[in-house]
Amino acid sequence: MERKSARTIADAIGNTPLVRLDRLARNWNFNLWAKLEAYNPGGSAKDRTAHAMVTASQLKPGDTVVESSSGNLGIALSREAVLGDWTFHCVVDPRANRTTIAHMKALGTVVHQITEPDPDTGDWLVARRARVAELLEQMPDATCLDQYSNTAAFVAHDEGTMTEIVEQLGHAPDQLLVAVSTTGTIGGCLQYVAAHGLSTQVIAVDAEGSVLFDGHPGTRHLPGFGAGMVPELSKKISPHRVLRIDDRASVEAARKLVRTEAILPGASGGAVIAAVEKLSADIPAGSDVVVIVHDDGTRYMDTIYNDDWVEENL
Predict the structure, then answer these.
(1) Are 188 and 298 contained in the same domain?
(2) Are 276 and 179 in contact (CB under 8 A)?
(3) Do 100 and 182 belong together in one domain?
(4) Using CA atoms, how far apart are residues 200 and 292, in angstroms rounded to an integer?
(5) How far out from the chain centre does Cα 3 lie?
(6) What's the pLDDT at 2?
(7) Rounded Cα distance, 49 and 84, in Å
(8) What average pLDDT does range 283-299 have in this prediction?
(9) 126-149: average pLDDT
(10) Residue 51 lies in a domain
(11) Where does the secretion signal sit in this chain (predicted)?
């Protein structure tokens, strides 16, 4: 897809590649495609979400924003803050990758790293959101765009991600697999499918131990997908199916993708590949199956691509 010149780096968001995974799917009788969101300027699908939330807001130069992130949205909002001349405070937890935190700081973001999970639930996301609330009390003029409830995310992935997939494929896919956390990406894709009367089966790929879509809470080690609390956005959507993938399977599938197709995914990218493997025997011959690979694996070199870390934690 041809790119035009961009006024700012934000204009380079979108039009990411849709790539066939023929080597990975060589023993399957369906077509497998990957939507590679790492080709956004900030390296993830969260570029779309962040830009949509900022565009829909009333932010102006000099304002202050406080937000919670597991990493990718933090990078995306850090860039938006530079372009909008406002100040960004990002709350992260220990699972955030070191390179992600360094990236945010390089863009001028004030990073607040919590050290303890929520005492009642044991969940890091709940603790991050509590810290956001504290910071908003300390900075009464600050605002929170709140990625967990902001429906601008649906617009971003309806008018952006899913629209592009259909245009690039030339028709609607038969199955679409999307890793879920805030559920903004899958919500936008579902919105597009419903609005256009498509028969695409949209499958949520969730982490074992996540509470999304009636899941049971448990220990999770991988950032970027799954949730320890039910985000407001998830209450507005109903995926056609939910598959839960454990951390180890996500890591193994991520490594398989890079060794087979030379595509280096993050943890959630591994999860969607593991989900395809789980479904493969039941997918009708000739189907077009699309997975959204949310980000790039270079930020995970110390974790899912580190043998010592995997053996110690998983």
Answers:
(1) yes
(2) no
(3) no
(4) 14
(5) 24
(6) 56
(7) 16
(8) 96
(9) 96
(10) no
(11) none
As a whole-number percent, the residues of the chain with pLDDT over 90 amount to: 89
Q: Place 3 in a pLDDT band, splitting at 50, 70 and 90.
A: low
Q: What is the pLDDT of residue 223?
A: 81
The verdict on residue 114 lying in a domain is: yes
Copy the structure tokens of residue 104.
Answer: 């945010």
What pLDDT band is residue 1 in, cutting at 50, 70 and 90?
very low
Query: 115 lies in a domain?
Result: yes
Q: Does residue 121 sit in the same domain as residue 159? A: no
Please check whether residue 140 is in contact with residue 253, taking contact to mean a CB–CB distance below 8 angstroms. no
Final residue belonging to a domain, choices 110, 143, 176:
143
Quote the domain boundaries for residue 97: 58-143
Residue where a domain terminates, one of 89, 110, 143: 143
> Cα separation of 314 and 298, whole Å?
20
- Euclidean distance between CA atoms 176 and 157, whole angstroms: 13
CATH assignment of the domain containing 305: 3.40.50.1100
DSSP codes, 30-48: SEEEEEEGGGSTTSBTHHH
Q: Are residues 164 and 269 in the same domain?
A: yes
Q: Which long-range contacts (CB under 8 A, 24 or more apart) does 2-5 make?
A: none
Taking the C-alpha atoms of residue 4 and residue 170, their distance in angstroms, rounded to an integer, is 22
Q: For residue 60, what are its two tokens?
A: 């102006």
244 φ, ψ (degrees, to nearest 5): -110, 130
pLDDT per residue as tens digits for the range 30-59: 999 999 999 999 999 999 999 999 999 999
Q: How many CB atoms sit inside 10 A of residue 248's CB?
A: 16
96-108 as b/e: b if 16+ CB within 10 A = bbeebbebbeebe
Residue 30: alpha-carbon gap to chain centroid:
25
Distance CA 150, CA 155 (A): 10
Mean pLDDT of the chain: 95
More confident residue, 3 or 180: 180
Other Cβ atoms within 10 Å of 198 Cβ, number: 17
pTM: predicted TM-score of the whole model, two decimal places: 0.94
Local structure of 164: helix, strand or coil? helix
DSSP state for residue 150 in the 8-state scheme: -
